[in-house]
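Q: what does this look like with biotin bound?
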Amino acid sequence: MSTSGTSEDWPQDHDRILLAQVDSTNAEAARRAPDLARPTWIMAQRQTRGRGRRGRAWSDPEGNLAATLVLRPEGPPARVALRSFVAALALGDALGVVTGGRGGVTLKWPNDVLLNGRKLAGILLESAGAGGRLSHLAIGFGVNLSHAPDQVEPGAVAPVSLRGETGIAIDPESFLTVLASCYAAREAQFAAGGFAPIRAAWLARAARLGQEITARTGAAETRGRFETVDEDGNLVLSTATGRRAIAAADVFF
Ligand SMILES: O=C(O)CCCC[C@@H]1SC[C@@H]2NC(=O)N[C@@H]21
């Protein structure tokens, strides 16, 4: 199956491609990006080689959401990368809509979404370009709507599914419609107001803000109090040896 089209609730300036199966919607995004004239969501019912952050595999049973938004954003790569926060916020908004705002949704730096403190969703940003200019940005969303994976990395936040945690059953296509609409609203906020309102909204939902956390980048580990996220999206920790701004890491609680 490969269909494209729109429905009443779908954002007017976004396109949509629905696939039965693909290796990875992010990989498909990279293949199709040169031919896409408008922001486009690519959703697959099943991925055979879903990928997660830092080269990890992303397990993707049918009934979960696997979708990638392909954008052609203007601006320097560092600003484009702030869409990581736009995306996480939009996903948090979408979950608020489907749960009727019952709460329990928090955001874990850089861009995981937690439900009742456990991992419900991950986001993977990938881009291509040359000479300081990006040709496209792919924002991949993996949401455990129906099933939580059995296996997790040692020390990682345990996974959870929306259905298992709340009893709410929503199919991926319906969830995508809500997510696309929430994303369009947050993108408009980012375009109009820059990172400041996005940052403030993200911090208002941040998991473990003010608490001790560990940031791990390769073999390097930094433990400290989670102070804030700065104007560039860095994780700021107050450590025994001073304030540290960390651009990329995995966070452990
Ligand atoms: O490691 C993470 O937490 C990020 C996981 C991102 C998974 C999604 S599923 C849709 C898109 N396609 C992929 O191959 N990965 C992302």
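Residues 24-26, 47, 50-53, 56, 58, 66-68, 112, 122-124, 140-142 surround biotin (CB under 6 Å). The longest strand covers residues 118-130.
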